[in-house]
């Protein structure tokens, strides 16, 4: 377990900030966030399908308007 030495007269919030910076620089916080909850294969697939659906909806909305603009420029 990583730790820091609290200096005499140092505020606790500043010591916590130093600890957080140290953990962040070593990549420990990122790994903790990733391992916080286990994701089964089924849950991962469902999450990816949800994000893909949102991404494709936005893409479809913008691509739908694009061909109409190309048709008017080629017709001129």
UniProtKB/TrEMBL annotation:
<dbReference type="Pfam" id="PF01165">
    <property type="entry name" value="Ribosomal_S21"/>
</dbReference>
<feature type="compositionally biased region" description="Basic residues">
    <location>
        <begin position="44"/>
        <end position="64"/>
    </location>
</feature>
<dbReference type="GO" id="GO:1990904">
    <property type="term" value="C:ribonucleoprotein complex"/>
</dbReference>
<dbReference type="GO" id="GO:0005840">
    <property type="term" value="C:ribosome"/>
</dbReference>
<dbReference type="InterPro" id="IPR038380">
    <property type="entry name" value="Ribosomal_bS21_sf"/>
</dbReference>
<feature type="region of interest" description="Disordered">
    <location>
        <begin position="39"/>
        <end position="76"/>
    </location>
</feature>
<protein>
    <recommendedName>
        <fullName>Small ribosomal subunit protein bS21</fullName>
    </recommendedName>
</protein>
<comment type="similarity">
    <text>Belongs to the bacterial ribosomal protein bS21 family.</text>
</comment>
<dbReference type="InterPro" id="IPR001911">
    <property type="entry name" value="Ribosomal_bS21"/>
</dbReference>
<dbReference type="GO" id="GO:0006412">
    <property type="term" value="P:translation"/>
</dbReference>
<keyword id="KW-0687">Ribonucleoprotein</keyword>
<keyword id="KW-0689">Ribosomal protein</keyword>
<dbReference type="GO" id="GO:0003735">
    <property type="term" value="F:structural constituent of ribosome"/>
</dbReference>
